[in-house]
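Researcher: Next entry in the queue.
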Amino acid sequence: MTIRLVIPAHLRTIAKVSGEVEINVAAPVTIPAVLDALEAKFPALQGTIRDHVTRQRRPFIRFFACSEDMSHEPPETLLPDAVLEGVEPFLIVGAIAGG
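Model: Structure for this entry, 99 residues:
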């Protein structure tokens, strides 16, 4: 299944891409499955979104689908149908902290 991704500018630079990225993801389409496919297609991104050892999301990285923050969803949570159908992209967002 082809998934549309929007990734932060600094990760696009590392992956040497511009704009949206499309990746093929085997079912079931979960956040870990999307990240596995993204890292397989762009090995330079390994360790930038999630820790090499624990495979946990790095601080200040968030995941959004259909305007919903999915950053704290269980790993087995399936992505929404609109993302699976290519209507909506899956977003990987660099969060900002401070005041």
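Model: The chain has a mean pLDDT of 94.
Researcher: Noted, moving on.
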